[in-house]
Amino acid sequence: MSIINAPRGTRDILPAESWKWSYIIKTAGEVMKNFNFSEILIPIFEHTELFSRGVGETTDIVEKEMYTFIDRGERSITLRPEATAGVMRAAIENNLCAQGNFAKLWSWGPMFRYERPQKGRYRQFYQIDAECLGVAGSSADIEIISMSLELFRRLGLKNLEVVLNSVGCEKCRPVYREKLLNYFNAHKKDLCETCLTRLDRNPLRILDCKKENCGKISDDAPDIYESLCDGCRNHFEEVKTGLENLGFAYRINKRLVRGLDYYTKTAFEILSGDLGAQNAVCGGGRYDNLASSIGGGKIPGVGFACGLDRVVIVMEEQNCSFGKIPAPDVFIIANENNKASAQILTYKLRSAGISAVNDIAGRSFKNQMRSAGLCKYACIIDQDKNKNKNKIILKDMAEGSQIEINQDEIINYLNGKL
Ligand code: HAM
Description:
The chain has helices at residues 15-34, 48-54, 60-65, 84-93, 138-155, 173-186, 193-201, 212-219, 230-245, 290-293, 308-317, 339-351, 365-371, 410-417, and strands at residues 38-39, 45-47, 67-70, 76-79, 103-112, 124-133, 160-166, 251-252, 266-272, 280-286, 301-307, 330-334, 356-358, 377-381, 391-396, 402-406. The protein is α+β, with helices and mostly antiparallel strands. The protein has an 8-stranded mixed β-sheet, sandwiched between helices. Strands 13-12-14-15-16 form a 5-stranded mixed β-sheet, sandwiched between helices. The chain has a 3-stranded antiparallel β-sheet with strand order 2-4-3. Strand 12 (330-334), helix 12 and strand 13 form a beta-alpha-beta unit. The protein is elongated, with a radius of gyration of 28 Å. Bound molecules: histidyl-adenosine monophosphate (HAM).
């Protein structure tokens, strides 16, 4: 029978790698705690409508990348392509922002998009996501952007660039859209096929096109800053000043529109110089109309999502530290005759909160000793030679020194040392 492989665009994160992921998630949890964000767990699948209405009918995600299926109850269900719409849905459904309350929430987990797989781009990928819901002012934007940068600082990422833009709001964007339409219509013959379809549906997305010709045309397109209303202009200025006050450099890119339709005002990305084509490690922005587009009234929001798969790639390329390689503290070495004593002692240590292993594969004494090399201590039960059944040898693997100790004293001793 043929072997069954993982589906294209998915991969197994094996133990040699998974501890690095745990380190990043633990670090993210610490940063979120420092910024007073609470963890939220939301479903991996939602009603398809949440994304078609929330992320936008004309986005690539909704048009061609969603994993959508009809479940056994005849409902259209979609594996989440991103977390923001789900977090907002949860906040609305559970009244987290009722009576003027605001909520600062974070989450992490798998997302699903049917994209062409390449380095840093997968069909199942992972995001660390943070959302601040219920705050309209620029302080929330500044908090969100600075939190993503703090996470990258703690992880030791270098060579990053913050790219910032304002995409306006429901008041000023229609005016800008009209100007863009006029401009791009005049350059219709030079646009790529995809951009021609964008022309009527979503002309702002043309600005984002990576094709050289479209890029050149977009460079000379009308500037959004000339169309921003006073509210959006002030908000943008406040975000820029806030970032400057915190000492963060950024680059303004008037062509940054991002691939999700819910953005209003702030849009940003954090790019890595060490990733190749898929160079964004983080993307985010403000989405003041997302709640109303999914039937939830007026709840402004701002957030980011950081691509965990890409952060691991960059950290490996930049030789960043992932903390200590996990290994048990104690290896209990015993021969076949002392298997039961080894099992009992191992269980005692584990119950006392000490990470311990004993041999479960019937390996030779020599091989057990070799495996113990990764641990802080080797604990040798050698009752055949030893008259006193209670005595064991405890070897400090780093120092090479060893002591004889009573079994019932070992927990106290190790607790003082580990
Ligand atoms: P996004 O830009 O679509 O935004 O994704 C955020 C990040 O997820 C990207 O910068 C990238 O690092 C990672 N990513 C996206 N697609 C893939 C993929 N196929 N393979 C690997 N990594 C990927 C959002 O998802 C928004 N929900 C962000 C947000 C939160 N905006 C406001 N709040």
